[in-house]
Amino acid sequence: FLVFCLSIGVGDFPIGLSRVVATLFGRGEQVDEFVIMDLRMPRALAGLIVGIALGLSGAITQSVARNPLASPDILGITSGAGAVAVFLVTTTGGTAAAVAGSVGLSSAALLGGLATGLLVYFLAWRRGVDGFRLILIGISVTAMMQAVTTWLLASAEIRDVGRAQVWLVGSLDNRGWDEVEVAFWCTLVLLVVVAAVAFPFKPMHLGDDVAAGLGVRFARVRAVL
């Protein structure tokens, strides 16, 4: 909470910690309330929620692959989402992104990431999914998606490349309450799904054979995650 309040107070218009706390509890000045609640609070909350989602997705990926090196970018999910976003931005001159808005572009990237993840899971399936095979195939698909992204960036107009690079790097600048709401509900759905499969997922850390002996349908649980 202290770091959160300090981050809100930092900026071109610095606000002291006591004034930040007073504003959060409804006792701040009108200028402080505008700067904090309308300009900086959405940015801070968006960063907090996205950080929670990233940490949770990394933990899920490592648990599914049973490998501490596993992560969404290694399994091709991140590169697949980036390739779809870059394709939309570079092939339409940015007009599709402008029409659909940031939420629409993010939704398309999400679908691309999910499709890439399903492709990796399907290619790794051999009467079950082995963690090492999943990672190896994920690395291969990641390299392929990164090659597609590089080719799109190399053949696009320089202005479209700039837009695509900004999207790939990510930014909390100019985040509003609409983006915070979308991130909140997506993260909440993720938390609900994880909580629903948390109990049957615990025996899977002992191995697929032990989990199957305890009656856990590990293939279904792993596919959901």
UniProtKB/TrEMBL annotation:
Residue ranges of the TM segments: 44-62, 74-99, 105-125, 132-154, 182-201
Membrane topology: Multi-pass membrane protein
Chief location category: membrane
PANTHER family reported in the protein's UniProt record: FERRIC ENTEROBACTIN TRANSPORT SYSTEM PERMEASE PROTEIN, FERRIC ENTEROBACTIN TRANSPORT SYSTEM PERMEASE PROTEIN FEPG
InterPro entries found in the cross-reference section: ABC_BtuC-like, ABC_transptr_permease_BtuC
Pfam (any one): FecCD
Keywords, ordered alphabetically: Cell membrane, Membrane, Transmembrane, Transmembrane helix, Transport
Similarity comment text for this entry: Belongs to the binding-protein-dependent transport system permease family. FecCD subfamily.
Protein name, as recorded: Iron ABC transporter permease
